């Protein structure tokens, strides 16, 4: 593989503003109800303040993508740069990928009657542009990296709150959020 | 999944003037191929949930689009530059302006929803008349009919009252594009009218900064990266100014300490080094306490206050006599040692800065509290330093011609003969004719309900509402709706059938920024953004000045000379006329056309405001002691002022939401996908005591009104506080925080904006579970 | 909870019933050296169940006109392999039906149909054991499907079995239903001690009316009836199918995905 594109989700910088989620909608105009990039709140069991730590996830462009392996219609391909692309013209709408993906990434569009998902803005990548979500992020929390050269010691593959599946090999990398010193009111 | 079959679709069907449902209308259009002729129906088709759907858009390649420069004109610190991508006359997507280091190529969750705003099926397309205010019984009318009715009413008022004081305007921040001051211009061009003046937003702090320094003028926010100590005090940039955070992060990376002071553990708070959960309204006491400690420890910048301050000695004497650190800390609800430590750290850091939030001054003591915080920055010598300063806002870059706004009253106009003040923070006084014996009549914009109820000689007969969603956003909603019953005709200019439009007799459909020519600057950063017309106005929409121009033509046809607003304007020319040499020099451009290639930044001698330490006060110094403040009925020094007494068991905070900007954006179905419903946030202890579980439906109530909604339990809020984010969720959702918020005034605001502000966060309520 | 996928419920139930009857036909031949009472009717029923199941599956596809694409990824996709196996199974069933019209079906054909049928169920078991649904990302779906084939298969096959051999069918049915009862009661309880998603799946099953309806209508009542009469009553297949329907609905609708738990502890 010449490159291994991946998203780096820096939860220490992420403010859960949903800009990335809407930047994707702005680019692709998904149906109401279909959101390709979701900003998941991290539960209080993991980060002790409700709705204050976030995991922005679109597709994880896995090393061994269950969607691709399980698709009977060969509607998924993995590019040389790691991007897992869904091809709507080949899709028969069997919805197998909705179940094989452990991250809930592919969604079924009841109007086109096909699955759809983030394909890492491959048309933008090929034009030398950043993915829409990465370009939109105001805090630099979401960036595109190349795992062949990415070298951030804070980045991990399986943070708490994310399915631990090394054999699937999701490409997304995470930096964990931090906590401030908190001074609460005495009264 | 959200299938929003809102009443918008019904309205649209009615808008088409017949009983065709929208689905069958679109079908007919498709069949006749006429759909291709309608602007934006390509996108309508791919968006529509009711009509045929054709999958999703793709990125067609960088060369496939025409690009235009636009700006987000909402009431937001960030005022982003935008680049719009148009294909075949349809706005396909938007991006952030890459040439502005502030916008940095990206927008926010709201800005990226703009394509859906433009092509929303709920958008008002034609002028419409409501048969029976509040009935929802709308009929489509032509522009001729609409302007005929409105002009008829204007002439009727002049006939009846002998003046046009019975016509009133309320307008605020729905669109800050400079040409939109043409709405004020329209009223001026009709004669002397009634104006709702002031601002709900930030007036107390504006007055405070004017008393202290002679103007509200903040550093370039991009210089926060250089700061060594940042206190974010009562502001939540993680929700309200996402582009500012990168500078705070950079400062942290360079070793700065960030302290966030807020009644609520906000998203911003968890990104700082230290968070203080302050008692709301105790900010002044806390600042005084910190000052006391600096005085005790000899950490005041003596040279600075001697050279640049007026009345510092009296301030220090006041503090020594009246303030102890223990007292202030107790008022704020914080430990004394923590208060002392941070005060010392702040004084030792160079430069140190405080970001004073607008939420912080929405209290009955908000203005004087800002003065106390300003004083803290000044007495540590941080005013006038890059990376320092008491940051609040500025109007430094707003020196346009206001060509659309400045219109002469028609000859023979009769008006108000009493005293009058500024008409809002953007009132540069250019509209005032010193020699005139008449002026507009001014009412408090924040008490529109009460003012209309009380108005006589004449009463408010015709109310023009533009760039403001009064019924959603103004205080004590029930009182406003009741007051509106007195108004004979209400005209609203708007995009969606929001609660204000629901109370109007005539609604005039208006344009989004992409269909408009204007120019935009920010009250926080120092960039200038052109706003080009990227697509033709959809359906029969018109911009504010196009409406003014059309009304002028109709009025002059009926009564020559009755309106001086230019007829037959060219919107682009009106935009060009706003530019002047001052703007060109400030931004280092030779022509407005330079802005087609990108944004321009003001050329500043220093990133710091007041870098020359020549303050705009009467003394030219930083006035710890302000005579003007005293003349205006306040203490000359920033003394302690108590907050509002509670009138219900729990404090109610209604700050700004993440997914909307006031009543815009949250109504869109795209936004509902990310944030489906309003919630009230309650501390688990408080909820437990009342048998309220997570997700239960509750009613929140106080003497002003009540709301029913779902509760979410979190200790982000203190146990004695309820939190709701203000927003309009669309036609089917009656949620409105202003059912609970009354119009009590803040201490300051009248000096520079014409009216005091509103103590929005000095509200109280109770909560109980609603039986399932 | 997932939305009701009627096509998948019917597809799996009916094809598993077809395989079950076919396997029982082979077993009956093997154990008794006797053919069925009405071979044409039996093979016609098998074929009918198979065709009905496959037709139902078409309603699950967003684009049935592209159905041929479903075979393009036999290299890695279990669903492709499953469909291929069912095509072979269907060809063999057609062959057996054609053969039954002429006389007794040969032993090797019976064995072939049975073996390919079981292979098809194994492929199907893997297809419905996806990575995204941790409670069943294992051998259980295959086990569930085999049990369905055994119980429904033996109940239907009893129509075509001479009286003297009803005992065999009754034995297969009772054993199958009893094992089903044990497994279906145990497995959700085992799930309770799994990770967050698996445990939640267990809780979803144990609190679902669909699951209990299956247990009662699909297993308990039939077992009691068979215990009393020592044979499979004529109405039993209908009741069993009903019960199986609820059980299969539970399988498809209550199965939780790991993707639905992101942000929470696993």
In short:
The complex is a heterotrimer of chains A (187), B (772) and C (266). By secondary structure, chain B is of the alpha/beta class. Among the domains of chain B are: 128-198 and 397-511 and 539-573, Rossmann fold; 218-392 and 609-631, Dimethylsulfoxide Reductase, domain 2, CATH 3.40.228.10; 650-769, Barwin-like endoglucanases, CATH 2.40.40.20.
Cα Rg of chain B? 26 Å
Give the strand tally of chain B.
27
Which fold does the CATH topology of chain C refer to? Formate dehydrogenase/DMSO reductase fold
Residue-averaged pLDDT of chain C, rounded? 94
SS class of chain C: mainly alpha
Percentage of residues in DSSP E strands of chain C? under 5%
Span between termini of chain C: 19 Å
In helices, the fraction of residues of chain C equals 55-70%
Strand content of chain B: 15-25%
Low-confidence segments of chain B, given as residue ranges, are 1-54
Quaternary status: heterotrimer
- Quick one: biggest sheet of chain B? 8 strands, mixed
> What's the CATH first level of chain C?
Mainly Alpha
CATH architecture of chain C: Up-down Bundle
CATH architecture of the domain at 128-198 and 397-511 and 539-573 in chain B: 3-Layer(aba) Sandwich
CA(first)-CA(last) distance of chain B: 23 Å
CATH hierarchy, class of the domain at 128-198 and 397-511 and 539-573 in chain B: Alpha Beta
- CATH level 4 superfamily of chain C: Formate dehydrogenase/DMSO reductase domain
Secondary structure class of chain B reads alpha/beta
- Give the overall form of chain C: globular
Descriptive report:
The complex is a heterotrimer of chains A (187), B (772) and C (266). Chain A is an alpha+beta fold and 187 residues long. Chain A has a single domain, classed as Alpha-Beta Plaits (2-Layer Sandwich), CATH 3.30.70.20. Chain A is built from 5 helices and 10 strands. Chain A has a 3-stranded mixed β-sheet. In chain A, strands 2-3 form a two-stranded antiparallel ribbon. In chain A, a hairpin with a 4-residue loop joins strand 6 and strand 7 (114-116). The N and C termini of chain A lie far apart (60 Å). Chain B has 772 residues and is an alpha/beta fold. Among the domains of chain B are: 128-198 and 397-511 and 539-573, Rossmann fold (3-Layer(aba) Sandwich); 218-392 and 609-631, Dimethylsulfoxide Reductase, domain 2; 650-769, Barwin-like endoglucanases (Beta Barrel), CATH 2.40.40. In chain B, the strands form 6 sheets. In chain B, strands 5-4-17-16-15-6-7-14 form an 8-stranded mixed β-sheet. In chain B, strands 22-26-23-25-24-27 form a 6-stranded mixed β-barrel. Chain B is globular and about 75 Å long. The relative contact order of chain B is 0.16. Chain C has 266 residues and is mainly alpha-helical. Chain C has a single domain (6-258), classed as Up-down Bundle (Formate dehydrogenase/DMSO reductase fold), CATH 1.20.1630.10. Chain C has 9 helices and no strands. Chain C has helices spanning 6-32, 39-58, 78-100, 107-127, 140-157, 166-191, 196-206, 209-229, 236-253. In chain C, helix 1 (6-32) packs across helix 9, helix 5 packs antiparallel against helix 9 and helix 8 packs antiparallel against helix 9. The radius of gyration of chain C is 19 Å and the shape is globular. Classes of the chains: A alpha+beta (187), B alpha/beta (772), C mainly alpha (266). The interface between A and C is large, with 43 and 34 residues.
């Amino acid at each position: 593989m010449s490159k291994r594109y991946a998203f780096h989700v820096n939860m220490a910088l992420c403010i859960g503003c949903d800009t990335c989620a809407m930047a994707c909608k702005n680019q692709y105009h998904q149906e109401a109800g279909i959101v390709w990039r979701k900003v998941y709140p991290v539960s209080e069991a993991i980060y002790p303040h409700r709705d204050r730590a976030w995991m922005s996830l679109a597709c994880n462009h896995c090393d061994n993508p269950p969607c691709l392996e399980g698709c009977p219609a060969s509607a998924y391909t993995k590019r040389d740069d790691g991007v897992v692309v869904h091809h709507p013209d080949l899709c028969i709408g069997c919805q197998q990928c909705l179940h094989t993906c452990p991250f809930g990434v592919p969604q079924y569009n009841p109007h086109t009657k096909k699955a759809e998902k983030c394909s890492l803005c491959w048309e933008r990548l090929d034009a030398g542009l950043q993915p829409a979500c990465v370009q939109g992020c105001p805090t630099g929390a979401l960036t595109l990296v190349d795992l062949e050269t990415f070298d951030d010691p804070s980045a991990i593959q399986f943070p708490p709150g994310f399915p631990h599946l090394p054999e699937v090999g999701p490409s997304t990398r995470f930096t964990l959020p931090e906590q401030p010193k908190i001074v609460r009111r005495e009264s | 999944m959200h299938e929003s079959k809102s009443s918008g679709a019904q309205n649209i069907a009615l808008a088409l003037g017949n009983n065709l449902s929208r689905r069958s209308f679109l079908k007919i259009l498709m069949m006749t191929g006429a759909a291709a002729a309608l602007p934006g129906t390509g996108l309508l088709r791919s968006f529509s949930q009711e009509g045929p759907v054709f999958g999703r858009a793709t990125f067609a390649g960088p060369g496939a689009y025409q690009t235009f420069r636009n700006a987000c004109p909402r009431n937001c610190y960030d005022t982003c530059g935008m680049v719009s991508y148009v294909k075949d006359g349809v706005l396909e997507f938007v991006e952030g302006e890459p040439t502005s280091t502030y916008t940095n190529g990206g927008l926010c969750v709201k800005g990226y929803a703009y394509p859906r705003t433009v092509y929303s099926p709920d958008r008002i397309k034609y002028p419409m008349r409501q048969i029976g205010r509040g009935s929802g019984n709308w009929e489509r009318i032509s522009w001729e009919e609409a302007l005929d009715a409105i002009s008829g009413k204007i002439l009727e008022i002049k006939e009846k009252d002998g003046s046009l004081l019975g016509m009133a305007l309320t307008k605020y921040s729905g669109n800050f594009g400079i040409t939109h001051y043409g709405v004020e211009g329209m009223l001026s061009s009709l004669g002397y009218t009634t104006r709702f003046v002031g601002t709900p937003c930030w007036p107390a702090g504006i007055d405070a900064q004017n008393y202290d320094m002679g103007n509200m003028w903040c550093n370039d926010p991009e210089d926060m990266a250089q700061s060594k100590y940042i206190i974010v005090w009562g502001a939540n940039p993680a929700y309200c100014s996402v582009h500012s955070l990168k500078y705070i992060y950079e400062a942290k990376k360079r070793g700065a300490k960030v302290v966030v002071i807020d009644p609520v553990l906000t998203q911003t708070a968890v990104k700082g080094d230290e968070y203080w959960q302050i008692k709301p309204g105790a900010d002044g006491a806390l600042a005084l306490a910190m000052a006391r400690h600096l005085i005790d420890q000899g950490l005041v910048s003596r040279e600075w206050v001697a050279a640049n301050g007026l009345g510092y000695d009296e301030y220090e004497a006041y503090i020594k006599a009246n303030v102890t650190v223990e007292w202030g800390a107790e008022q704020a609800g914080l430990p004394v040692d923590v208060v002392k430590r941070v005060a010392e750290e702040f004084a030792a850091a160079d430069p140190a800065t405080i970001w004073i939030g607008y939420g912080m001054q929405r209290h009955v003591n908000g203005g004087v509290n800002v003065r106390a915080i300003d004083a803290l920055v000044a007495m540590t010598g941080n005013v006038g330093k890059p990376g320092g300063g008491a940051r609040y806002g500025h109007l430094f870059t707003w020196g346009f011609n206001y060509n659309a706004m400045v219109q002469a009253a028609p000859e023979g106009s009769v008006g108000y003969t009493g005293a009058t003040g500024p008409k809002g923070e953007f009132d540069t006084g250019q509209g005032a004719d010193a020699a005139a014996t008449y002026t507009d009549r001014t009412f408090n914009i924040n008490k529109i309900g009460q003012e209309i109820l009380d108005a006589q000689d004449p009463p408010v007969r015709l109310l023009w509402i533009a760039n403001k969603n009064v019924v959603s956003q103004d205080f004590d909603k029930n009182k406003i709706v009741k007051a509106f019953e007195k108004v004979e005709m209400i005209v609203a200019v708007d995009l969606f059938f929001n609660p204000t439009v629901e109370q109007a007799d005539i609604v005039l459909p208006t344009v989004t920024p992409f269909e408009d020519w204007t120019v935009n600057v920010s009250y926080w950063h120092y960039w200038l953004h052109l706003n080009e017309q990227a697509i033709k106005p959809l359906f029969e929409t018109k911009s504010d000045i196009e409406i003014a121009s059309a009304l002028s033509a109709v009025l002059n046809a009926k009564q020559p000379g009755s309106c001086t607003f230019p007829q037959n304007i060219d919107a682009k020319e009106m935009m060009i006329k706003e530019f002047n040499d001052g703007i060109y020099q400030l931004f280092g451009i030779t022509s407005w056309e330079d802005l087609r290639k990108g944004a321009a930044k003001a050329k500043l001698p220093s990133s710091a405001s007041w870098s020359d330490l020549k303050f705009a006060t009467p003394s030219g110094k930083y006035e710890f002691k302000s005579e003007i403040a005293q003349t205006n009925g306040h203490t000359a020094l920033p003394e302690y002022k108590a907050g509002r007494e509670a009138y219900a068991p729990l404090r109610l905070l209604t700050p700004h939401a993440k997914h909307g900007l006031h009543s815009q954006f949250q109504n869109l179905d795209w936004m509902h996908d990310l944030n489906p419903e309003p919630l009230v946030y309650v501390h688990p202890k408080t909820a437990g005591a009342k048998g309220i579980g997570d997700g239960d439906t509750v009613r929140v109530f106080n003497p002003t009104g009540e709301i029913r909604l779902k509760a979410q339990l979190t200790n982000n809020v203190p146990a004695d506080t309820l939190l709701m984010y203000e927003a309009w969720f669309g036609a089917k959702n009656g949620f409105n925080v202003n059912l609970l918020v009354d119009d009590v005034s803040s201490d300051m605001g009248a000096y520079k904006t014409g009216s005091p502000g509103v103590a929005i966060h000095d509200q109280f309520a109770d909560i109980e579970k609603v039986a399932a | 909870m997932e939305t009701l996928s009627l096509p998948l419920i019917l597809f799996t139930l009916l094809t598993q019933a077809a395989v079950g009857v076919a396997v029982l036909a082979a077993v009956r031949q093997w154990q008794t050296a006797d053919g069925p009472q009405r071979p044409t009717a039996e093979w016609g029923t098998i074929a009918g169940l198979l065709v009905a199941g496959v037709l139902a599956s078409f309603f699950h596809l967003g684009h049935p006109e592209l159905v041929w694409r479903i075979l393009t990824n036999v290299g890695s996709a279990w669903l492709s392999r499953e469909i291929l196996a069912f095509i072979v199974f269907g060809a063999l069933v057609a062959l057996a039906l054609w053969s039954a019209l002429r006389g007794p079906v040969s032993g090797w054909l019976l064995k072939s149909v049975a073996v390919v049928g079981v292979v098809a169920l194994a492929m199907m078991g893997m297809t419905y054991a996806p990575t995204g649904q941790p409670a069943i990302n294992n051998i259980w779906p295959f086990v569930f499907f085999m049990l369905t084939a055994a119980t429904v298969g033996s109940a239907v096959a009893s129509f075509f079995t001479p009286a003297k051999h009803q005992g065999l069918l009754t034995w297969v049915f009772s054993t199958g239903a009893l094992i089903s009862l044990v497994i279906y009661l145990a497995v959700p309880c085992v799930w309770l001690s799994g990770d967050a998603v698996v445990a939640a799946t267990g809780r979803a099953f144990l609190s679902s009316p669909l699951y209990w309806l299956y247990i009662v209508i699909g297993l308990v009542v039939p077992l009691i009836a068979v215990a009393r009469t020592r044979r499979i009553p004529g109405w039993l297949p209908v009741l069993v199918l009903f019960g199986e329907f609820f059980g299969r609905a539970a399988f498809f609708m209550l199965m939780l995905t790991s993707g639905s738990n992101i942000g929470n502890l696993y």
